[in-house]
Description:
Elements: H1 5-21, H2 27-38, H3 43-71, H4 73-91, H5 97-111, H6 114-125, H7 131-138, H8 140-158, H9 170-189, H10 217-224, H11 227-256, H12 262-269, H13 271-290, H14 296-317, H15 321-385, H16 387-404, E1 411-413, E2 426-428
Amino acid sequence: MNLTVGQRKTFTVTWITYAGFYLCRKNLSIVLPLLAGVAGFHSIQLANIVFGYSLLYAVGQFGFGFLSDRIGPKRVVGAGLLLIIGSNLMMGLHASVMWLLLFACFNGIGQATGWSGLVKTMANWFSYENRGIIMAWWGTNYVLGGFLATAFATWAVAEHSLLPQLGWARGFLFPALLLSVITLLFFVYVKDTPPQMGPGAGQPERSAAAVPEHTSSADLRMLLCKPSLWTISISYFFLELCRYALMFWLPYYMVRQLQYGVATAGYLSSLYELVGIVGALLAGYISDRFNQSRRAPVSAVMLCGLGLVMLLQPILARSGLVGIGLVISLAGLLSYGPDTLLSGATAQDIGETRAAATASGLIDGIGHLGALFSPYVVISISERYGWDRLFLVFAATAFLAGLILLPLWNLKASGEAINHFSEPIMQETT
C-alpha cells in the first residue's frame, strides 16, 4: 500500500509514543515482587496499588476518548504523557503503600489518555481500506512496547552497579526519563489531522479519511445505541481481565510460586509481549485478507485457543523453563491478536473517523473494568485455592470472551460514514 510522507511520519511517531506509554506501565509488574521483599508489602497491599491504577485508568477511558474527539487528541495525549512522567518520578522517591497508591492513580489517569487519543489520530490519517492490516502493524506498539518495557525495567532493577543507592526505585525513574525523550518527539512531530488544501495549493498530503468534525452529544447517543458496541465491550471486559492478570502478575507468580529469580521471571514474562506481536499481525492480516474485514471470527477463534492454553498451563508448567515459556508465548500470541482487533480496528469500524476516539474509549474503558478486578481475582484465588485453579479461571474468561462474539460472526465494516453517522457502520455479509 502507498503511504504519504505525512502518513509514514504519523504512523512511526505515534507508534513510538504508545510503546513509550508501556515504559511506565509494565515497570510496575517488575517492581512489585521487589517491594514485597524489600518493603515487606503484603499481597493485598500490592493488589490495592494495581487496583488504584486500574480504577483511574478505566474511569479515564470513558472521558478522554470523548475529549479527544472534542478538542483534539494531541492536547489530551500530551497532557497525559506529562502526568505519567511526573507520577513515575514521584513513585521512585518513597516506598510506602499510600504514597505508591496515590501516584499509581495519577499514572492511571495519564495512561488513560493514550490509546483512544492515538487511535483517533490514526483514524484521521488513514481510511477504512486495509484498516485491519494498518492497525495490526500499528498495534504492535503496545505488544512490542510491553516486551521492551519489561526488559528495560528488568535491566534497570537488576543492574546493581548502576546507581546502586537507588535500588528498586530505578524501576520507576529510568523508564520515566526515557519516556521524557519520547514525549518531546510527540510534541514536535505529531499533528492531529492531515494538512488541508489551501487556495492555490496542490494536492494535499492526506489519506482518504476525511478530516472529522467535532463529535457532539447526539453522536455519542447514536454510538451508544449500537448493539455491536456493547457486545464487543463485554467480550473485551473478559479478555482484559485475563490479559492484565497475566501482564501484571506473571513475574510475581514465577518468583513466589515457581521460585525463579527476579531477573529470570522478568525476562521470561517478556515473552508474553514478544510473541504477542505475531498474534497481533496474524489477526490483522487474516481479518482483512481472508475474512472481508470481519473481526469477530478471528477474535473468537483465538480467544478459544487462549482458553485451551490456560487449561494446559498446570501440565506444561511442570516441564520447567521450557514449559512455562511455551505457555507464556502461546498466551501472548492468542490474547494480543483479539486485543488489537477489538480495541483498534473494530473500534474504528464502529465509531469511524468522526467518533473513533469515543468508541475506542468506551470499549477500552469497559474492558479495563475487567482489568480493575484482575488483581483481586489473582490474589484471592491463588491464595485460597492455588495458582493452578487460577489458570482455570483464566481459561473460563477466555472461552466466555470468545463465545460472546459469536452473534457478530458475519459483521464487517461497510466503509466511511462521516456524514451519516447515525446509519449503521457494520453490515451483515451474505
